[in-house]
Fold:
Amino acid sequence: MSEKSIQTPKGHAKAGFALITSENELRKQVWGWRGSGETIGLVPTMGALHGGHISLITKAKAHASKTIASIYVNETQFAEGEDLATYPRDHKRDCEMLKAAGCDLVYMPEKMYTDDHATRIALGGPAVGLESRTRSHFFAGVALIVTKLFNRVQPDLAVFGEKDYQQLLTIRRLTADLDMPVRIMCAPVMREPDGLAMSSRNRYFGAAARTIAGRLNVIMYECARRISDGDIIETATEIARKKILDAGFERVDYVAVADEKSLVLLNGHMGARPARLLIAAHCQGVRLIDNCAIH
Ligand code: PAF
Structure:
């Protein structure tokens, strides 16, 4: 994909769509925009884009005058044995989708870490538990790449999906704790017609597994309804766990209810506290996560 942006005499894009791979070029472009009073919205992605990502671009465009999407499959958030090597990569299609969505610039670095990279970020608060129980490396890797992307792009705002709800809260905590001047915005989960949350990993499914995967959101919403109707959290989540297994999932990592802001786990009756139901389960070798608010 070698589409060029329209260059002004000062060397920065004025309009159109640009693909940039070099950090220097990126900085030049962003400085140029800043010099002309533009505001910058960033949507970090790992590519293999779907409607969920496009909704993030739409949100960024509504709040910033220039929108940048980054595409980088971040090795530090994958553990040994996970799908780093096979993670779907389709950069040509990604760029076409981004261009059609009105994104101004795609930043696609070849490398984000030097060979002697040694810095780690230790996270607490919302990063503890849930995903971290089975993927202990994950949020440290996300925090590193998001921090590095923020430092390179220096956006005014960045948009993340509520699909990765714990990731969203972790990034909010990280940016607040480290005084990063980036406004973190979110967009709701986008779903397929049967309610399956859109995810780049959905393309791993064969037809039979895909049908099973479509049950997860149905069971999740049923569970959320039971809890808001007054069921005890432990009872409702246990019923959901059994239903997920009965539907054909091979393993459930968690079905949990947590405070909407802190992600502290809740038990007993929900009460008036705004809460979120979060689920992770394995369907024919593909790990799915989903979540919804409990009203
Ligand atoms: O949500 C994702 O796709 C990734 O975790 C992110 C935020 C782009 C960091 O690699």
Summary: The chain has two domains: 18-187, 200-294. The pocket of pantoate is lined by residues 44-46, 74, 77, 142, 145-146, 164, 167 (CB under 6 Å).
